[in-house]
């Protein structure tokens, strides 16, 4: 790690920047600019301040955030709940998503304002600013700028940030907590312990397993410092604040399931996916609820992934996932930075090793979770450390090969080249997202254009479709919705129609792409 140690060899995680004062990348303005550019890039990929979700996970978070924006933990079970089946959503005994409340609470203000992407974009902007600021703090401005470019433009980063996924919140929490840890170790001010506890605690009520992994190395550092510096008061404050935030979880349980000890996640797993638990054994307990055929395809797919994981050697799974993550990080024009990453491994200082080691711990921990290797969203939190390692290796290599007589390329030219390459990444991610979201986006537009409201849209799925793209998905405030979008169940549709309080019934045939008004 470059920079000068602040309080001696024993405090090597805390450093001052080694870049000269007054440099163009110093101060708060460059960090603010990086944050703004990050949000703009993701907005370009997303294409709207109120985009509809695409994948099943996103719709569940969307439903949850909509309910939270209206100050509801859950709603009553809808009439004939089997028509409303939606992955990762409880339809009985309540209507609520299975996920912990951290993400939905963070993004709910945007839903209340009618701009559902507002908060994810703001969170992403702050994350981009922290990526730059942290890299500059432990290295220098040039390394920080390159870290930001390598981090932002990876396809997984752009694609999954232009979506409703909880990893956007936990990746922000990781970086904010790291910054707070550095500040607390440098200043010993209690307010930074509070920030550290808040960031860690909020991440824990968003993705508990992810933040448990994060808290282990952070906890070791904090405890070591407390024992050596006798800062017992700060430790007590941190524990109290963290406990207060974690106290939201039993409230969430009680308000959603009616039992403070039973999480909606556990209830959903029992009802639908009893095999979907960490580990290398497949739970053969049958699910409590049946699913429509198009959703049963997804359940079978997830079960097959679990069985494949159980049958595949541990090391093979680890190599496969590591390869996919590195390919995403260093694909395309980034390929030379894969070699810089190897050099960076040898030149990392204590802070860099700490960040990369925590990221590696995350990757190792998720080996117990079954998923396809291309689902790199689970490792969104690890991407900044990977980018920093490569950027550090590249700047160290450039410094090593630089000779005094060689002409220097103007910084503006280098910046223009990299921004040009970054723009190609943004365009490619935008085009990919536009392609995969085209069908659900068109469907939602057609539903909104139906002449008679309120209505029920019975979706008759085609057998030739992507199982990962949802059409049957509803807003959280179901009674107030102009349209109920439900599964077509043939003659049984009459049962829901009788309970729908005069809503007009439409049938959508995915095979033909046509709507027609039903005459029960």
Summarize the structure in words.
The protein is of the alpha/beta class and 520 residues long. It has a domain of 73 residues. It is 58% helix and 6% strand. A 4-stranded mixed beta sheet has the order 7-6-8-9, with no helix packed on it. The chain has a 3-stranded antiparallel beta sheet with strand order 3-5-4. The N and C termini lie far apart (72 Å).
Summary of the model, kept short:
Helices cover 58% and strands 6% of the residues. It is an alpha/beta fold and 520 residues long. Helix 4 runs parallel beside helix 7 (167-187) and helix 5 (141-152) crosses helix 17 (383-401).
Distance between the termini: 72 Å
Contiguous helical run count: 20
Strand neighbour order, sheet with most strands = 7-6-8-9
Helix residue percentage = 55-70%
Instruction: Report the order of strands and helices.
Output: EEHHEEEHHHHHHHHHHHHHHHHHEEHEE
Strand content: 5-15%
Low-confidence stretches: 1-12, 14-22
> How much is the average pLDDT?
92
Structural classification = alpha/beta
How much is the radius of gyration in Å? 25 Å
The number of strands is 9
Main sheet characteristics? 4 strands, mixed
**Basic shape:** globular
Question: Would you spell out the secondary-structure blueprint of this structure?
Answer:
Layout: E1 4-5, E2 15-16, H1 28-46, H2 56-69, E3 75-76, E4 89-90, E5 94-97, H3 102-112, H4 118-138, H5 141-152, H6 155-161, H7 167-187, H8 190-204, H9 208-229, H10 232-246, H11 248-257, H12 264-271, H13 293-311, H14 314-329, H15 336-347, H16 350-365, H17 383-401, H18 411-436, H19 438-448, E6 455-460, E7 483-487, H20 493-498, E8 504-509, E9 514-517
Parallel strand pairs: 6-7, 6-8
Antiparallel strand pairs: 1-2, 3-5, 4-5, 8-9
Helix pairs in contact: 1-4, 1-18, 2-3, 4-5, 4-7, 5-17, 7-8, 7-9, 8-9, 8-10, 9-16, 15-17, 16-17
């Amino acid at each position: 790690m470059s920079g000068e140690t602040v309080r001696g060899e024993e405090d090597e995680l805390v450093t001052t920047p080694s870049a000269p004062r007054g440099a163009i990348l110093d101060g708060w303005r460059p960090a603010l600019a990086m944050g703004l550019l990050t949000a703009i890039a993701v907005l370009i990929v997303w294409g709207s301040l109120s985009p509809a979700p695409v994948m099943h996970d996103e719709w569940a978070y969307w439903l949850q955030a909509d309910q939270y924006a209206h100050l509801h933990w859950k709603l009553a079970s809808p009439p004939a709940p089997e028509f409303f089946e939606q992955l990762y959503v409880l339809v009985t005994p309540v209507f609520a998503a299975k996920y912990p409340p951290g993400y939905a609470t963070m993004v709910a203000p945007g839903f209340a304002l009618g701009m559902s992407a507002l908060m994810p974009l703001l969170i992403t902007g702050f994350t981009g600013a922290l990526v730059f600021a942290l890299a500059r703090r432990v290295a220098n401005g040039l390394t920080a700028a390159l870290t930001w470019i390598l981090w932002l433009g990876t396809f997984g980063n752009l694609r999954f940030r232009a979506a409703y996924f909880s990893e956007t919140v936990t990746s922000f929490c990781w970086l904010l907590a790291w910054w707070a840890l550095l500040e607390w170790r440098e200043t010993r001010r209690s307010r930074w312990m509070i920030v550290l506890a808040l960031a860690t605690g909020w991440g824990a009520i968003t993705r508990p397993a992810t933040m448990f992994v994060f808290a282990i190395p952070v906890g070791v550092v904090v405890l070591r410092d407390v024992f050596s510096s006798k800062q017992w008061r700060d430790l007590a404050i941190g524990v109290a604040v963290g406990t207060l935030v974690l106290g939201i979880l039993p409230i969430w349980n009680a308000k959603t399931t009616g039992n403070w000890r039973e999480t909606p996640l556990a209830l959903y797993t029992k009802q639908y996916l009893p095999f979907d638990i960490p580990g290398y054994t497949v739970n053969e307990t049958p699910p409590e609820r049946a699913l429509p055929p198009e959703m049963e395809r997804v359940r079978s797919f997830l079960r097959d992934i679990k069985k494949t994981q159980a049958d595949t050697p541990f090391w093979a799974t680890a190599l496969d996932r590591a390869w996919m993550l590195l390919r995403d990080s260093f694909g395309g024009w980034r390929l030379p930075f894969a070699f810089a990453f190897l050099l960076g491994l040898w030149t990392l200082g204590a802070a860099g090793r700490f960040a990369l080691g925590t990221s590696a711990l995350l990757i190792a921990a998720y080996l117990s979770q079954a998923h396809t290797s291309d689902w790199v969203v689970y490792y969104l939190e690890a991407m900044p450390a990977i980018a920093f390692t490569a950027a550090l290796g590249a700047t160290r290599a450039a410094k090593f090969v630089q000779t005094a007589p060689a002409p220097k390329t103007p910084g503006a030219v280098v910046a223009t080249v990299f921004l040009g390459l970054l723009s190609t990444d943004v365009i490619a991610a935008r085009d990919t997202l536009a392609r995969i979201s085209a069908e659900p986006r068109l469907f939602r537009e057609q539903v909104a254009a139906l002449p008679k409201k309120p209505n029920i849209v019975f979706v008759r799925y085609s057998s030739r479709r992507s199982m990962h793209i949802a059409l049957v998905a509803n807003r959280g405030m179901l009674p107030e919705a102009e349209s109920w979008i439900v599964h077509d169940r043939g003659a049984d549709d009459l049962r829901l129609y009788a309970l729908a309080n005069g809503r007009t019934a439409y049938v959508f045939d995915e095979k033909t792409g046509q709507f027609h008004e039903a005459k029960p």
